[in-house]
């Protein structure tokens, strides 16, 4: 009794503990745990704001720039951040904020450290006597726009890892590559001291034959889904690399991929409906906005571009303000989901540069006047939380700092006089402070500044760029098969090669020396390093010649001026062009086009190879037709130059695919990301799968028997549907499941759904006991596997058929071959078989009846004893055969496992006869043993 009571007590304690655990894991508990950090953050922000003056609050609204690297106490930037309490600074190369090559990174870190220390020191040396308000310490945002691909998209040209352009990342079609690049970018910028990243660009590039888009390679691509996927991965990488101490401000919201001019120079207009904006321009931003905070793929803010949208602003006229200055347009965008939720949860809105020529020309096309206070006020009241001001100077002032100080004074005065304005300021300051607290945890200088030791790791991650280059390199024209005919071999040792390079150089500052970014001999030197005398001697250095596009342009104008170029060009077997982009301010960038159009005789019967290290869509169809091979590299950093050299010598293939449309080769990104018409779409029953089964069914599988009845719901799904580049189709691709009910009253039903992760799912309720045939199409992919369901007495025989693909049109030669999708899923023909009552009864009748019959035969032929033995052996054999069948051991050995009830009957009969045979052999063996032996 005592022992029983003891065990009951233990059981009761376990029940109580389990109840407490269940309560602790319930939704109410997790919600409370999730709300506590936010509640604590709100409390901390309110405590800080209660200590702030109007001047300190309005100062938090501004991201300012300054000239030079002087941050001493008598400098203008010192006054702005210490006396006027400005909350953020952006460093730019064109403002001479960086030192020359060799000192760029350490001096930038030193400047940032000085700026942050000034603000910290000022907070620690305040007069703390009675009656004096002590202002809280609030660290600075230190921002930069560092997009990759060096000049002109980067601010720091040397000292950091040379990372590729966004388009090069997009050409890998691999979000893990975007995350890897973002990780390096975040790690190195944070080590220098930056905590605000202005980027990445989430614009969806629209390229047409007559487009004048100026984004170049500053975008991940032209498909909204893939731009969103790459953008999320890049944001995640930035957060991980910076250890969540970098605020990411994506640009150019709501998207400027369809604009026809630079928004920095003029307010562009995009005539698209709101639905079109949601599906294309806004889609990548929304993808990041709705990502979970835990995934780190959610952007912290957006930079609003100076651009007009007909879908938001209806009838657009010259006086219609850009979205960045239009409160109603901003409200419309921020009330769309998921932007509304993201904004409510603390998303920060940052204006694009309010001192740009676009803003100046909007307010005064003559450029004679500029009312900085009105511009800043309008931008703030339009909904921007942070006002980015560069070159923000009125004509009456000598420098921008004077103008900014006047604007700050006017904001502080209006804060005191206008309660509605003050409330609006408080809302933005609250967002800004929450973001800063999320970055640093506490406002202490040791939390704000990175350890000095991290600076040693900057510039040591070149392998990432090389991996991106290998995956991104694309053969644009001709097809791979045609290229093998045109170029059966690489250059040989005595082949002469002439290189023409569209040279790019830049100055890190106005007083710095010229710094080569893409030099005249970049590609030639890469070839010598990889294939010259020190690397196997595949080529002779004296047979290589390099010239700039400026040299070529000069030669076309006056051949006698550069006679050596003419001689080298005439003797060369290989003519290689390295394009860096299309710069209207540099006429020499058109040298290749001039050569192709004006003097095609100079390259007649030569192997003409073009590598596009910039945008791949700048040449037209006529130009490309004159080339032997045209490759897209998308970035001019050194790793991509080395990759081009390897491609030239056929050591590496170019299997990437362009992420943007290229009219010159008939490549359209919408068609390229549509389902490949040559594929056979896999089709599966969507039951729980065995994770150990990872093979995709390639050939028709054995018939499977599952139990279904009228009224049951059949769930099914596709495998991964691939596009014409071999990648999963974008989410939202339309898929139609076609269900045919066969028989005299046959019907056809279609279920339309969309893909997620390349896979579409649907379900169907069985309404009639008729044969059902299920297939799937996703235009233009019209061929799929077929599931056939044959209901029989409440059961269904399910088989998978792979139809013979119908002849289709030849795919566009510029598209890369499409690999078949690999799906880690259970095959349609399950190997786990289910046998019911009637199968057991079938076995029992055969084995029981057969055993009795065999026993009767044994009794009549031999004796009662052997009749019993034969009957028992037969019964045992039949039962054993049935047990082997239902255990699944016959699956890989015999078609009996998939033959349904006939398989049960045949297996039982075979076992029955086998048992009888063994009994018969037993009887013969005993009979011989008992026979008397004759003596000699």
TrEMBL record:
Q: Which EC class is the enzyme in? A: hydrolase
GO molecular function term, any single one:
beta-N-acetylhexosaminidase activity
Keywords, A to Z?
Glycosidase, Hydrolase, Membrane, Transmembrane, Transmembrane helix
Q: Which reaction does it catalyse?
A: Hydrolysis of terminal non-reducing N-acetyl-D-hexosamine residues in N-acetyl-beta-D-hexosaminides
Q: Where are the transmembrane segments?
A: 837-858, 870-890, 902-922
Where does the Glycoside hydrolase family 3 N-terminal domain lie? 55-435
Tell me which domain of life the UniProt entry assigns to the organism this sequence originates from.
Answer: Bacteria
Matching entries from Gene3D superfamilies are given as: Glycoside hydrolase, family 3, N-terminal domain (3.20.20.300)
| Pfam families, sorted | Glyco_hydro_3
Q: Does the keyword Methyltransferase apply?
A: no
Hey, which family's this protein in?
A: Belongs to the glycosyl hydrolase 3 family.
For this entry, the protein name equals: beta-N-acetylhexosaminidase
């Amino acid at each position: 009794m005592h022992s029983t009571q003891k065990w009951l007590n233990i059981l009761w304690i376990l029940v109580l503990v389990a109840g407490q655990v269940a309560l602790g894991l319930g939704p109410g508990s997790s919600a409370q745990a999730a709300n506590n950090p936010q509640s604590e953050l709100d409390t901390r922000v309110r405590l800080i704001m209660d200590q702030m003056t109007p001047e300190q609050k309005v100062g938090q609204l501004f991201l300012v720039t300054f000239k030079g690297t002087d941050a001493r106490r008598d400098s203008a930037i010192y006054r702005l951040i210490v006396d006027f309490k400005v909350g953020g600074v952006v460093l730019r190369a064109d403002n001479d904020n960086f030192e020359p090559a060799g000192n760029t990174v350490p001096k930038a870190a030193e400047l940032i450290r000085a700026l942050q220390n000034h603000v910290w020191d000022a907070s620690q040396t305040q007069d703390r006597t009675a009656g004096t308000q002590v202002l809280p310490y609030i660290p600075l945002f230190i921002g930069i726009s560092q997009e990759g691909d060096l000049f002109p998209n980067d601010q720091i040209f040397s000292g950091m890892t040379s990372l590729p352009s966004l388009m090069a990342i997009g050409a890998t079609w691999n979000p893990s590559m975007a995350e890897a690049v973002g990780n390096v970018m975040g790690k190195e910028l944070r080590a220098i001291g930056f905590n605000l990243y202005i980027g990445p660009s989430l614009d969806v590039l629209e390229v047409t034959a007559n487009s004048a888009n100026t984004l170049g390679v500053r975008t991940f691509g032209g498909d909204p889904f893939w731009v969103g996927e790459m953008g999320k991965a890049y944001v995640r990488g930035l957060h991980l690399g910076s250890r969540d101490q970098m605020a990411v401000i994506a640009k150019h919201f709501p998207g400027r991929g369809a604009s026809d001019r630079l928004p920095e120079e003029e307010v562009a207009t995009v005539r698209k409906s709101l639905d079109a904006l949601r599906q294309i321009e806004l889609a990548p931003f929304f993808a990041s906005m709705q990502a979970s905070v835990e995934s780190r793929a959610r952007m912290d803010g957006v930079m609003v571009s100076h651009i007009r949208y007909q879908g938001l602003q209806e009838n657009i006229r010259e006086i219609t303000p850009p979205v960045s200055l239009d409160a109603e347009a901003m409200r419309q965008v921020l009330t769309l989901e998921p932007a509304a939720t993201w904004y409510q949860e603390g998303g920060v809105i940052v204006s694009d540069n309010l001192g740009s020529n676009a803003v100046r020309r909007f307010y005064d096309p003559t450029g004679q006047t500029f009312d900085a206070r009105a511009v800043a006020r309008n931008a703030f009241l339009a909904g921007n939380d942070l006002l980015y001001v560069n070159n923000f100077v009125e004509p009456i002032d000598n420098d921008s700092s004077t103008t900014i100080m006047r604007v700050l004074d006017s904001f502080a005065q209006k804060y005191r006089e206008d309660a509605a304005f003050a409330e609006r300021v408080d809302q933005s300051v609250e967002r800004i402070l929450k973001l800063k607290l999320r970055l640093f945890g506490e406002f202490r200088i040791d939390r704000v500044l990175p350890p000095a030791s991290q600076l040693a790791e900057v510039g040591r991650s070149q392998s990432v760029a090389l991996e991106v280059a290998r995956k991104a390199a694309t053969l644009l024209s001709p097809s791979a098969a045609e290229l093998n005919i045109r170029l059966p071999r690489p250059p040989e040792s005595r082949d002469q090669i002439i290189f023409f390079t569209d040279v790019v150089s830049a100055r890190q500052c106005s007083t710095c020396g010229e710094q080569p970014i893409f030099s005249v001999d970049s590609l030639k030197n890469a070839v010598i390093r990889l294939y010259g005398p020190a690397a196997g001697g595949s080529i002779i250095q004296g047979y290589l010649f390099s010239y700039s596009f400026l040299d070529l342009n000069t030669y076309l104008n006056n051949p006698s001026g550069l006679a050596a170029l003419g001689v080298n060009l005439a003797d060369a077997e290989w003519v290689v062009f390295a394009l860096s982009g299309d710069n209207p301010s540099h006429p020499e960038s058109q040298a290749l086009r001039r050569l192709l159009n004006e003097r095609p005789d100079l390259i007649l019967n030569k192997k003409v190879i073009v590598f596009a290290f910039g945008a791949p869509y700048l040449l037209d169809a006529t130009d490309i037709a004159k080339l032997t091979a045209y490759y897209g590299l998308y970035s001019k950093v050194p790793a991509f130059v080395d990759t081009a050299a390897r491609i030239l010598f056929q050591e590496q293939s170019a299997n990437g695919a362009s992420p943007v449309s290229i009219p010159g080769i008939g490549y359209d990104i919408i068609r390229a990301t549509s389902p490949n018409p040559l594929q056979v779409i896999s089709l599966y029953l969507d039951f729980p799968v065995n994770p150990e089964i990872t093979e995709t069914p390639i050939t028709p599988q054995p018939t499977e028997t599952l139990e279904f009845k009228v009224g049951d719901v059949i769930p099914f799904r596709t495998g991964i549907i691939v596009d014409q580049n071999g990648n999963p189709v974008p989410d939202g691709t339309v898929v139609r499941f076609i269900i045919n009910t066969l028989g005299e009253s046959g019907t056809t039903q279609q279920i339309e759904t969309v893909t997620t992760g390349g896979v579409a799912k649907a379900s169907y309720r069985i309404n009639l006991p008729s044969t059902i045939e299920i297939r799937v199409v996703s235009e233009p992919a019209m061929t799929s596997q077929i599931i056939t369901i044959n209901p029989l007495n409440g059961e269904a025989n399910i088989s998978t058929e792979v139809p013979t693909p119908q002849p289709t049109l030849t795919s566009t030669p510029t598209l890369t071959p499409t690999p078949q999708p690999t799906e880690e899923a259970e095959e349609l023909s399950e190997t786990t078989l289910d046998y019911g009552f009637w199968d057991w009864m079938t076995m029992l009748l055969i084995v029981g009846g057969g055993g009795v019959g065999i026993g009767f035969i044994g009794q009549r032929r031999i004796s009662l004893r052997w009749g019993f033995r034969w009957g028992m052996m037969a019964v045992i054999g039949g039962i054993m055969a049935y047990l082997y069948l239902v255990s699944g051991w016959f699956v890989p050995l015999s078609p009996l496992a998939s033959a349904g009830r006939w398989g049960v009957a045949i297996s039982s009969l075979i076992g029955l006869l086998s048992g009888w045979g063994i009994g018969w052999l037993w009887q013969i063996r005993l009979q011989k043993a008992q026979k008397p032996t004759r003596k000699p």
